[in-house]
Amino acid sequence: MAYRSVLVGFALVLWTTGTIAADKAVADKPGDTRSRLLQRMDRNGDGKISFEEYRNAMQRRFAARDKNNDGVLDAKEFPKEWLAGASEQASDHKITLEDFGGELEATFKRFDTNGDGQLEAGELDAFVAARKAQEESKP
Fold it and tell me: Any idea where the EF-hand domain is (predicted)?
């Protein structure tokens, strides 16, 4: 299960932020990327992302990738960039919605440094910085 944790944790950061900043100019500006995160996830408009908002957004992203609606992302549905930079890889290159969902809280808590259940400006900037670091580590 450890290999899934590494893979899913990396995938969540990359997927959440990497798909939001489509062009390089936006990706280089943390404030702009933070604004895009808020646009996609902050459903109540309070300028913060709660765990519930994060979880719901990530489950929507999973469902959008799951073309055959079987609750599993297989090699054809699983973005190759999710594997870049992961220290361990799933041997079957599949991830279930259950495995994916099981890692959401740990990933959220990693960035919720003050433990208030909300990702705020500085925490969102750290989230964006983690994504940038992962992308820069790609071969």
Answer: 36-64, 99-134
How many domains would you assign to the chain? Answer: 1
Report the CATH number that the domain containing residue 41 is assigned in CATH: 1.10.238.10
d(CA 66, CA 137): 27
pTM tops 0.90, yes or no: no
How many other CB atoms are there within 10 angstroms of residue 102's CB atom?
A: 14
Cα separation, 95 vs 104, in Å, equals 13
Question: CA 115 to CA 56: how far, in whole Å?
Answer: 19
d(CA 15, CA 125): 15
- Which structural domain, as residue segments, surrounds residue 68? 2-136
Contact present, 79 and 65 (Cβ < 8 Å): yes
Share of the chain above pLDDT 70, in %: 64
